[in-house]
Specification:
This protein has about 170 residues and is mainly α. Helix content is about 85%, strand content about 0%. The chain is globular. The termini are far apart.
Length: about 170
């Protein structure tokens, strides 16, 4: 049946995506990118913009692991463009957008472009609050605190705010 064929194809691309993720964790970055590209082609062909954005962010993150920050950011910008094809963003789409912005912030931080890094981190925080993902919010806030480490007062304020939120989470 057509439904069974679609389910099988979906499973196939989920497996490709998981294999790509495993290759990335093993440091086999080119293999990961090759598999992600297979998944991306299918997602874009079917105009599945949310999952295409997720794959684009994964490709970008793979380039960040390779310390190829410029190419990583290019793919992450494409992820944000993919999401712009959607009128109303689901919580999954907002999560991908938040994580993509966080990754772009990280890349700019590694490139010592701290103003751009902070801009993207703060945008990421906004989306993480919209979907009420406080655990992920804390991770991004920690990235901001690390970026501020050369300026003691804002850095301490940042960590105090982070601690306050973590105390709230543990209550």
């Amino acid at each position: 049946s057509v439904a069974k064929h679609i389910e099988d194809r979906e499973l196939e691309y989920t497996i490709y995506n998981n294999l790509a993720l495993n290759h990335r964790y093993l440091g086999e970055y080119e293999e990961a990118i090759d598999l992600y590209m297979i998944v991306l082609e299918e997602r874009e062909k079917n105009e599945n913009w949310v999952t295409a954005a997720g794959v684009l962010n994964d490709i970008g993150n793979t380039y960040l692991y390779m310390k190829n920050y410029k190419t990583g950011v290019e793919y992450q910008q494409k992820a944000l463009e993919s999401l712009s094809n959607i009128d109303t963003l689901s919580s999954k789409a907002l999560s991908i957008k938040a994580n993509t912005l966080n990754s772009i912030g990280y890349a700019f931080g590694e490139l010592d472009q701290n103003d751009s890094a902070l801009f993207h981190y703060y945008k990421s925080l906004d989306f993480k609050l919209k979907i009420n993902n406080l655990f992920s919010w804390c991770n991004t806030k920690n990235n901001i605190c690390i970026l501020l480490r050369s300026d003691p007062e804002p850095c301490i304020d940042c960590y105090n705010e982070l601690l306050d939120v973590q105390y709230e989470l543990n209550d």
